[in-house]
Amino acid sequence: MGERADVWQGTLALMVLKTLQALGPLHGYGIARRIEQTSGDLLAVNYGTLYPALLKLEQEILARFLAPGKESA
C-alpha cells in the first residue's frame, strides 16, 4: 500500500466535528480510527496533533458559551 498522508491541522478540526456529529461521543482513539477508516487508510492521524486539536476545540466551545453578552443557542 502507498504512503499515508498526514492530516493538516486546519482540516483536522472539521473532520473531528463531522465524526462526532455522525457518531456521537467518542474517545480520541475512536475519532482517529474513524477518520483513518473513512479515508480508506490514506490519512494518518497523529496523536500529537489530535489531542491538542481536541483541547483547542473544547476551549473554543467553552469560550463561546461563557463569553459575556452571548446567549447560548
* Shape label: elongated
Tally of domains: 1
The parts where pLDDT drops under 50 for at least 5 residues are none
Helix run count: 3
Biggest sheet, strands in spatial order? 1-2
- Summarize the helix and strand pattern as letters: EHHEH
Content of β-strand: 5-15%
The total beta strand count reads: 2
- Termini separation: 46 Å
Summarize the structure in words:
The radius of gyration is 14 Å and the shape is elongated. Helix 1 packs across helix 2 (28-38) and helix 1 crosses helix 3. Helix content is 63%, strand content 5%. It is mostly helical. A two-stranded parallel ribbon has the order 1-2. The chain has one domain.
Secondary structure layout:
Layout: E1 5-6, H1 9-23, H2 28-38, E2 43-44, H3 47-66
Parallel strand pairs: 1-2
Helix pairs in contact: 1-2, 1-3
Task: Give a short synopsis of this structure.
The protein is mainly α.
Which characteristics define this entry?
mainly alpha; 3 helices; 73 residues; two-stranded parallel sheet; 63% helix
